[in-house]
Each structure stands twice: as C-alpha cells, then as structure tokens.
Amino acid sequence: MVDEGRPLFQQIAESIEDSIIDGSLSEQDQAPSTNELAAFHRINPATAAKGITMLTDKGVLVKRRGIGMFVADGARDLLLTERRAAFADRYLDPLITEARKLGLGPDDLARLLAERATASGTKGTAR
Predict the structure, then answer these.
(1) Contact indicator for 61, 17 with CB cutoff of 8 Å
(2) Average pLDDT of 66-83?
(3) Which residue, 4, 15, 39, 105, is the most exposed by fewest CB within 10 angstroms?
(4) Average of per-residue pLDDT values in the chain
(5) What is the DSSP code string of the chain?
(6) Partners of 61 in the beta sheet?
(7) Other beta carbons within 10 Å of 118
(8) Over 80: is that where the pLDDT of 14 sits?
(9) Which pLDDT band holds residue 121 (cuts at 50, 70, 90)?
(10) pLDDT tens, residue by residue, 109-119
(11) Residue 31 pLDDT > 90, yes or no?
(12) What is d(CA 74, CA 83) in angstroms, rounded to the nearest whole number?
C-alpha cells in the first residue's frame, strides 16, 4: 500500500474508500478502527486517525458514540460521483483537448474507445 509520493493518512483513507466502492464495506458496516488500521499497516495511530477523520469530514464515515465508525448512507454514491469527476478531469479533459487537435469528434472518440475496449476484452459497465 505504501506510495512514497502521498501521505500515509491519504492512502489509508483511499484504501477504505476502495473497500466501499468495491462493496467489501457496505453502507452501515463498521469500518476498521484506528487501532486496527495502525496495527495492520504498522503506523502511528494518529496517522490512521487522520485518515479516518478525513473520511468523516467528507461524510463517508459516521461515528456512533461508544461503538465506532460506520459507513454512512449514500457513501458509495458520493465516492463514485467524486471519483468519476476526478477521472474526467484527469483523463477525459486532456483526451478531448488532444482529440480536437487531431480533428477527432465525439463519434470518432467513441469508436476508438469501443475498438480498444473490444481489443482488450473490456466491456462497458455503466451504472
């Protein structure tokens, strides 16, 4: 999990987000505790807590007093919306800019994408 370029607390938060997106942590499920995360990743509990706090501030996790942290209702949809927007910013906007330079329109891009997806065995799974 260690990515030298990003702070550990962000990596912890993203790991929990990934679990929510892939369904291994469902809404209303209890999230790993700060101590569990710290022990598993062999990091300082304060670092793990910072990642948990980041998710709480974002509305992904909610605290149930005396019980622990739980995945909030709507967390998966929130994360998918956020990640799709980030995907568009990071990949689609530069793609569209380059396509314009090459004289490719939306239909051309759709055709190229479909061809590449077919060649790689990937099928579209819009949700």
Answers:
(1) no
(2) 97
(3) 4
(4) 92
(5) ---TTS-HHHHHHHHHHHHHHTTSS-TTPBPPPHHHHHHHHT--HHHHHHHHHHHHHHTSEEEETTTEEEEPTTHHHHHHHHHHHHHIIIIIHHHHHHHHHHT--HHHHHHHHHHHHHHHT------
(6) 71
(7) 10
(8) yes
(9) confident
(10) 999 999 999 99
(11) yes
(12) 14
More confident residue, 75 or 127: 75
Query: Which two three-digit tokens encode residue 62?
Result: 């909610």
Gap between the terminal Cα atoms of the chain? 28
Query: Which residue in the block uniquely carries the two structure tokens 């942290």?
Result: 69
Contacts of 124 (CB under 8 A, 6+ apart): 117
The token pair that represents 126 in the structure block:
């819009």
